[in-house]
Write a structure and sequence with these properties.
Blueprint lengths: L5 H23 L5 H25 L4 H21 L6 H23 L3 H22 L5 H29 L4
Helix pairs in contact: 1-2, 1-6, 2-3, 3-4, 4-5, 5-6
């Protein structure tokens, strides 16, 4: 079996990110418990962490490492806040500002590198993580906006993730 190109591997991550964001927004609606969110965040963080290492060291796609680790550590941070009983997510909020700012150079690099879909997602993630900064770091009540933008991201991640996974399966010879 031939190794897939790095962009194809993003598909599995997109699906798990979509699932994690869905669970998070359902938690905001009071439909899912916090500990369930923590477990999903740990799973998604771990998958993203492994994908970062694999993409960087096995496939030789160095930019995978830092970009994917930004998100892996967001999920780990959120899970830790939940499981430790943190009374505030302010630290997570300020970390999200760091992630949000870095999304835009990644968007530009992907756009210049001929990957407009990934560039779009980097920009979208910048908006989502920026909203997390405003809501958690600055403690502004923007729950409605966060719900909306997270739903948009969940839907788009699922669609694109599904396309990437099926594309990879076809590439790998699975019919």
């Amino acid at each position: 079996m031939t190794l897939p190109d790095p962009v194809s591997i993003v598909g599995a991550n997109f699906l798990f990110v979509a699932a994690a964001l869905l669970i998070i927004v359902l938690n905001v609606y009071g439909k899912v418990g916090a500990k369930e969110v923590a477990i999903m965040c740990i799973q998604t963080g771990a998958l993203t962490f492994v994908t970062a290492l694999w993409g960087s060291f096995v496939l030789g796609a160095g930019p995978f490492l830092a970009g994917f680790l930004l998100f892996a550590f967001t999920y780990f941070f959120y899970a830790f806040d939940i499981l430790s009983g943190s009374d505030t997510t302010t630290g997570l909020g300020w970390y999200c500002l760091f992630v949000a700012i870095l999304c835009y150079p990644y968007a530009a690099v992907n756009l210049q590198g001929g990957a407009p879909v990934l560039a779009f997602f980097w920009a979208l993630w910048g908006i989502v993580w920026g909203a997390f900064w405003i809501g958690n770091g600055l403690k502004k009540n923007i729950v409605g906006f966060i719900k909306f933008i997270v739903w948009v991201t969940v839907i788009l991640n699922f669609i694109v993730g599904t396309c990437f996974v099926f594309g990879w399966m076809n590439f790998a010879g699975f019919k």
